[in-house]
Amino acid sequence: MPPVILPSGPVPPSAWGDSRRRRVGLLGGSFNPAHAGHLHISKMALTRLGLDEVWWLVSPQNPLKARTGTAPLAQRLELARRVVAAERRIRIWAPEQAFRSTYTVDTLHTLRQRFPQVAFVWLMGADNLVQIPHWHRWTEIFRTVPVAILDRGPYSGAALAGQAAHRLAAARCPAWRAHRLADLPPPAWVFLPIRRHPASSTALRAVAM
């Protein structure tokens, strides 16, 4: 009988949920491919937001991106696990596949139902704050969980001057209160200035071509 090969890295959460109390950051994306920049912002979020864990939610297919050029889900998951293999507080899974959901807002609602004792925080780079008005029911995302925006290169100025930041200005928390964000009722969001990391999935794909 051939040996059983187990996935590398921390075991993903159960799709059926559990009742343990903890504070969890959710970093969603295609991770095409995962890289040290994703790891960097996850570690910053763990420290600055006082989180117990960060879960990378690897999307089977981003509805705003073309399928062309996107590696198979299994390949992206395995590479993500390798990137975080030494980090026991970062867990990798593809909940949209398990939940049969397409949109972030639906995934968040299911996570809150199945993990009722978890205080979730949605994590995203400043570039996504620029794009989020194009997301499905985007304002509902901010009404579902607190959101942390992490500084990302040249996008931050446009993000803080954009539609989403203006519309939700009253819900913005100062960076010095970031460690309390997980405990705040949504809508609540914070912009976190952090040391920037040069890695990008786009650049890595270009090198691989």
Q: How would you portray this structure in words?
A:
- The chain has 209 residues and is an alpha/beta fold.
- It has one domain (26-208): Rossmann fold, CATH 3.40.50.
- It is built from nine helices and seven strands.
- A seven-stranded parallel beta sheet has the order 3-2-1-4-5-7-6.
- Strand 2, helix 2 and strand 3 form a beta-alpha-beta unit.
- Helix 4 (104-114) runs parallel beside helix 6.
- The longest helix is centred in the first third of the chain and has 13 residues, at 36-48.
- It is globular.
Short description:
By secondary structure, the chain is an alpha/beta fold.
CATH class: Alpha Beta
The major sheet is characterized as:
7 strands, parallel
Number of domains: 1
* Oligomeric nature of the chains: single chain
Number-wise, the strands total: 7
CATH superfamily: HUPs
Average pLDDT level: 88
Identify the CATH architecture. 3-Layer(aba) Sandwich
By CATH, the topology is: Rossmann fold
Order of adjacent strands in the largest pleated sheet = 3-2-1-4-5-7-6
| Estimated structural class | alpha/beta
Uncertain residue segments: 1-7, 203-209
Order of helices and strands: EHEHEHHEHHEHHEEH
Molecular shape: globular
Termini gap: 38 Å
Number of helices: 9
Detail the topology: elements first, then pairings.
Blueprint: E1 22-29, H1 36-48, E2 53-58, H2 73-83, E3 90-93, H3 95-99, H4 104-114, E4 118-125, H5 126-131, H6 138-144, E5 147-150, H7 156-160, H8 163-167, E6 172-173, E7 189-192, H9 201-208
Helix pairs in contact: 4-6
